[in-house]
Write a structure and sequence with these properties.
rSAM, two-stranded antiparallel sheet, metal-binding, iron, alpha/beta, 323 residues, iron-sulfur, Aldolase_TIM, TIM Barrel, eight-stranded parallel β-sheet
Length: 323
């Protein structure tokens, strides 16, 4: 039995060779659509057509010392149209505006150099503005277990933290530091949100396999796949991006192998990838590492309403008691 027949029979315990076989499926073949069907039907069974919209506010647009070669905020190639840091009054207004549209969770994102005590203070205040069903999530630099405990005490429910593609090569972050932070998150009882990213044309399926397996071993419940967006002015701009068809295939394989029990995301939102079982999308405000506009809501960022519309097109909806 080949890997495709295996997953069609709902056997998702795949070897490395079988996962690579799925990743190597030709995008213009009949097997490509068989793969997407398995992933999409798996999501329908798991998620019961429940969709999610997460929002994210980038609270500072400043040069970052981690200097990721794909990021518009890298210190050596800062490409945003302005530098700024939001105070809490500004954040309060943005949270209020986002609150006029439905969303499930609010992420607060900073550069790696942002002072942690300032982030903790802002997080406590932001948490008080959320509705009971809305969770607060951190997207920040590396930290240790004592800081993880402070994040939890400040009202955060989860942290988005990953080992990125070619970490330590295309970034100045070290895999050991990323793994230490992930361990601190899990040891503290915070939820870990994960993503295979940022995927570019130069990344091999073997590299992608390694990160899919990492997420599978971490038993991630909120999972994502993100393709790299070529940002003008960044060192990796000329590498380009993978097409939406390729992105959808990687989403499908990731969904099948990792089997997240709460949500599967594609980023940035891509209609074609919705056919691969995606039930969660992001709306973004403020600084965005994939945009040259420092206010990404005027550029690449989606609004919650726009994200819900895309989810509706794919047959997903909010919870019945969503308010």
């Amino acid at each position: 039995m080949d890997s495709l027949e295996k997953i069609e029979n709902r056997d998702f315990k795949l070897s490395d060779e079988e996962i690579l076989e799925l990743l190597n499926i030709e995008n213009n073949s009949r097997d490509y659509y068989r793969l997407l069907y398995v992933s999409d039907s798996l999501s329908r069974e798991k998620f019961k057509n429940r969709g999610y919209v997460f929002t994210q506010i980038g609270i500072n647009a400043e040069p970052c010392s981690i200097n990721c070669r794909f990021c518009s905020m890298g210190a050596e190639h800062f490409s945003l149209d302005a530098e700024w840091e939001k105070d809490f009054d500004t954040l309060r207004g943005e949270i209020a505006r986002l609150g006029q549209q439905n969303y499930d969770e609010l992420f607060l994102m900073t550069t790696a150099d942002y002072p942690i005590e300032r982030f903790l203070d802002i997080s406590k205040k932001a948490k008080s503005l959320l509705k009971p069903h809305q969770r607060l999530v951190a997207n920040i630099g590396d930290f240790d277990e004592p800081i993880a405990k402070k994040l939890k005490s400040a009202g955060l429910s989860a942290v988005y933290h990953i080992n990125r593609m070619r970490e330590g090569e295309d970034t100045m972050a070290q895999p050991a530091d990323r793994e230490k932070t992930i361990k601190a998150i899990l040891n503290t009882g915070l939820d870990l949100y994960y993503c295979i990213e940022p995927i570019g044309p130069e990344h091999s399926y073997e590299e992608i396999l390694k990160e899919i397996k990492r997420a599978r071993d971490l038993e991630i419940s909120v999972m994502a796949v993100m393709r790299r967006i070529p940002v003008p002015g960044t060192p990796l701009f000329d590498k380009g991006k993978i097409p939406a068809r390729e992105l959808a295939k990687i989403v499908a394989v990731t969904n099948i192998v990792v089997n997240p029990q709460r949500s599967m995301n594609v980023h940035e939102p891509a209609q074609m990838a919705m056919m691969a079982g995606v039930n969660q999308l992001y709306a973004e405000v403020g600084a965005n590492p994939r945009d040259v506009k420092s206010d990404t809501e005027k550029g690449r960022g989606f609004t919650p309403d726009k994200a819900w519309e895309m989810l509706w097109e794919a047959g997903y909806k909010p919870a019945d008691n969503f308010n």
